[in-house]
Amino acid sequence: MSKTERPSRARASAELAAEGPGERAQSRDSVRLAVRKTYKLYIGGAFPRSESGRSYVVTSSKGDFLANASKASRKDARDAVTAARKAFGGWSGATPYNRGQILYRVAEMLESRRAQFVAELSESGTKKAGEVVDAAVDRLVWYAGWADKIAAVTGSTNPVAGPYFNISSPEPTGVVAVVAPDEPLLGLISVIAPVIVTGNTCVVIASERAPLPSITLAEVLATSDLPAGVVNILTGSVKEIAPWLAAHMDVNALDLTGVGDENLAITCEEAAAENLKRVFRPTGADWSADPGTRRLTAFLETKTVWHPTGA
């Protein structure tokens, strides 16, 4: 070190010492490297990485790096179905009133993280993200209100020619595989809520383009009162996962809302026919419109009971 260097370095040290705490923190922040997050899957109430070890890069609408997302495999899909089946007995056996309470709790938790959802939706290119988050919260509350009313609307007492009571009542179908739409929050809520509020459990393939809000929603679900396994969320390739869920013998129904490829939709429908799955394939969904009861009844079976009037 030369003699001419020493005074300059000494002056630099003196200047740094003279800086206030805020200025020093700003200097450190300017060179800090961000921690890059890898979003996990959500299976059985836990957040595992894909068993394949794969992930893919998620970018903003401007092409900037946001995070890495796990790329689910067929094994992950099978694990999710197993978790959903395990949870079905307890969830379908819960009272409708209790299921409604839990959905309302999910709405509360989602609203408490409003700022994070707004940021993630804005980065994915969603316009008026704040309004979308508010609509998603309202949609959860709306479906929660239907929990103990749908049976009264869809059930009936049937007139018969004999001394019998003949009563029809709705029951959940079972495990539902859902391909979520590309609308990463309001659309996602709109396909999950009607499935679970009626007593079904589900395995959801999230939006491949914008998966981050779906895993943030999974964090909300994990910290609410929703039992583990009722909702399982996979991220990755729809083309890779959807046909395997459609062919899975322990899946009872299939929602193809998010499948835009006609050939893929036909492939899934053909696979679903192997065990006579219910298949729901709507077109032209407007997520801001009144949802009605169509999705509530799409995954319900009707049980009819005969009972002698004199007993």
Automatic annotation (TrEMBL):
Gene3D superfamilies reported for this sequence: Aldehyde Dehydrogenase, Chain A, domain 1 (3.40.605.10)
Composition bias, Low complexity: 10-19
Pfam families: Aldedh
Region entry Disordered, spans: 1-29
Keywords from the UniProt entry: Oxidoreductase
UniProt xrefs under InterPro entries: Ald_DH/histidinol_DH, Ald_DH_N, Aldehyde_DH_dom
Recorded GO MF terms: oxidoreductase activity
Domain of life: Bacteria
UniProt key word Oxidoreductase: yes
Annotated ranges, domain Aldehyde dehydrogenase: 52-280
Presence of keyword Endoplasmic reticulum: no
Name used for this protein in its record: Aldehyde dehydrogenase family protein
